[in-house]
């Protein structure tokens, strides 16, 4: 007998995705960016959102939780919430004049709703200019 979740098709890329257009702002979980140097630190930036589902969806997912399996409406809500939090964090970075967010992290919690926070450090970065190689051979 197939499990209840195996009868559903896998989530499509358009349904659950984490790609965001960051408008040219580099967002990374690293504390530095290889090939770039940090020229100015602008401070901590946040993107916050609190999401909830409608009562009809809550009843449906409550019944689904009895038999087990993924609660797809809640998964979609979390993806959407994380994406909105990143959008807001990037907007705050751009508003301060930054072109990158380093040390980006997520925090979440919820009881009946989802509280999501994307945060990191807004910075201005520039590519590192490597010196052109010089000819060190002695002329004879």
Task: Describe the protein in words.
The protein starts with 25 loop residues before the first strand and ends in a 13-residue tail after the last strand. It is an alpha+beta fold. The chain has helices spanning 55-67, 72-95; strands at 26-27, 36-51, 100-109, 114-127. It is elongated. It has a single domain, classed as Hypothetical protein apc22750. Chain B (Translation Initiation Factor IF3, 2-Layer Sandwich), CATH 3.30.110.70. Helices cover 26% and strands 30% of the residues. Mean pLDDT is 79; it is low at 1-7.
The CATH class turns out to be Alpha Beta
Shape: elongated
Class by helix and strand content? alpha+beta
Distance between the termini: 85 Å
Mean of residue pLDDT? 79
- Low-confidence segments, given as residue ranges, are 1-7
| Total helical segments | 2
């Amino acid at each position: 007998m197939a499990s209840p979740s195996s009868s559903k098709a896998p989530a499509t890329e358009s349904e659950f995705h984490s790609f965001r257009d960051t408008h040219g702002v580099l967002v990374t979980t690293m504390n530095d960016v290889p090939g770039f140097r940090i020229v100015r630190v602008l401070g901590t930036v946040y993107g916050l959102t609190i999401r909830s589902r409608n009562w009809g969806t809550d009843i449906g997912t409550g019944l689904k939780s009895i038999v087990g399996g993924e609660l797809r409406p809640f998964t979609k809500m979390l993806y959407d919430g994380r994406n909105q939090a990143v959008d807001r964090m990037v907007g705050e970075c751009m508003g301060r004049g930054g072109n990158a967010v380093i040390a980006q992290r997520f925090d979440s919690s919820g009881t009946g709703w989802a509280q999501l926070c994307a945060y990191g450090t807004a910075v201005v970065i520039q590519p590192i200019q490597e010196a052109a190689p010089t000819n060190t051979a002695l002329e004879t």
